[in-house]
Amino acid sequence: MTSFGAKLALCVTLGVPLYALLRQTIRRSRRLRVLPRAKERVLVLGASSGIGRSVAEQYAAQGARVCVVGRRENEIQAVENACLELRTKHHADNSARPAIGLVADFSNPEDMVRVRQELENAWQGVDTVIVCAGASALRPVMEIAREKSSGKGYPATDDVQRTVDVAIAAERANYVGPLVSAVTFIPLLQSTSVSPSILLVSSLGAIVPAPTRAIYGSTKSAGLLLYQALAIENPTIKFSFMIPATVEGNFRASAVDAGTVREADPNQFGLKREDVAQRCIQAVDFEEKAIFMPGWGKITHLLYWLWPSAIERIAMRKYNFTHQ
Ligand SMILES: NC(=O)c1ccc[n+]([C@@H]2O[C@H](COP(=O)([O-])OP(=O)(O)OC[C@H]3O[C@@H](n4cnc5c(N)ncnc54)[C@H](OP(=O)(O)O)[C@@H]3O)[C@@H](O)[C@H]2O)c1
């Protein structure tokens, strides 16, 4: 290589990561400068457990005002109390209604408009919306269809309908919920925040196909693509997408197809929910677009198009899936 070529390669190797780091640092300081944590008003949809609960508690511990939303009343009350306690422990200020708990379904327009009214009344707006709620589905599609016929004959009308019902339940949680939330809160964010942000918790299953996750992955994929396009249509709002692999917790226990876990124990091998939550908050602060956890998730997406059979084999192994 000529000495000019070597210098150019060195400049690119050092310059590109340095530029990216500098750009992110400037962006971070920009959001926190115009919107310090103590002034930030955060809405977490799907906060009664898991990643959403941890996001809410971490924001509260840092002094932000948080509104937590979910359908289970007892859990929402508990998270509201925890957020109040964390806030008082770390920040003594008495801003009006520093933690709000609301029982609501994020796929129900009436519920979300009610949440918006509460936020307008209590805080006169919102700065950060974390869309965390979602539902799992864990079974191979043809297993759902053949559930009643024990694998014999062609699926009857009832069998096809059962499969459709499962897909509709997953779609309601993973696509309609994010849609209702976006339509309800985008105008409020735009008109009331100096630095409006939305983060969608998606999944690696939304961008890399996996057996037993056909319905889950495809409905999460629809939600992700919706938000990616909304980001282009609404450039005044910063959109971030958290794309984690398996996370610890009870997410799979409420699967809409009543499926069971086939992979290695998520509570032993999955990502820690606190780590995912912390990275969500950082992504919003840094105005990052897509965050993969772990980082190799980004490569699996690219690899699928370059060498699909390798990814298919890895996915089959991960989910202990064999063809019948
Ligand atoms: N766990 C994983 O392995 C994993 C991996 C990748 C991505 N994700 C994504 O991470 C997100 C959070 O999952 P998690 O692991 O934290 O599971 P989780 O503990 O089951 O949390 C899900 C939350 O969503 C809420 N929710 C579900 N449907 C809702 C609805 N219609 N309206 C309002 N709230 C609703 C649940 O509360 P209520 O039941 O009280 O309504 C709960 O608070 C999901 O979007 C999931 O797709 C999870």
Q: Can you walk me through this structure?
A:
This protein has one domain (23-318): NAD(P)-binding Rossmann-like Domain (Rossmann fold). Helices cover 55% and strands 11% of the residues. It contains eleven helices and seven strands. The protein has a seven-stranded parallel beta sheet with strand order 3-2-1-4-5-6-7, sandwiched between helices. Helix 7 (214-233) links the parallel strand 5 (197-201) and strand 6. The protein is globular, with a radius of gyration of 21 Å. The site of NADP nicotinamide-adenine-dinucleotide phosphate has 31 residues, from helix 2 and helix 6. Belongs to the short-chain dehydrogenases/reductases (SDR) family. It comes from Somion occarium. Pfam families: adh_short (PF00106).
Largest sheet: 7 strands, parallel
The overall strand count is: 7
Q: What radius of gyration results from the CA coordinates?
A: 21 Å
How many helices? The count is 11
Give start-end ranges of low-pLDDT stretches: none
Share of helix, binned: 40-55%
Q: Averaged pLDDT, please?
A: 92
Strand residue percentage? 5-15%
CATH topology: Rossmann fold
- Kindly report the spatial arrangement of strands forming the biggest sheet: 3-2-1-4-5-6-7
CATH H level, superfamily name: NAD(P)-binding Rossmann-like Domain
Structural class category: alpha/beta
Bound molecules: NADP nicotinamide-adenine-dinucleotide phosphate
State the name of the first-level CATH class: Alpha Beta
**Name of the CATH architecture:** 3-Layer(aba) Sandwich
Give the SSE order as H and E letters: HEHEHEHEHHEHEHHEHH
Q: Kindly, what is the distance between the CA atoms of the first and last residues, rounded to a whole number of angstroms? A: 55 Å
